[in-house]
Amino acid sequence: MVKRMGIVWNLRRLMAERDMFQTTDLIPALAEHGIHLSREQVYRLVAQVPQRLSMDVLAALCSILHVTPADLITVTETRVQVAKPTATGETTNAAKAPPARRVRLTRPGER
Question: According to the UniProt record, where is the region Disordered (predicted)?
Answer without folding.
Answer: 84-111
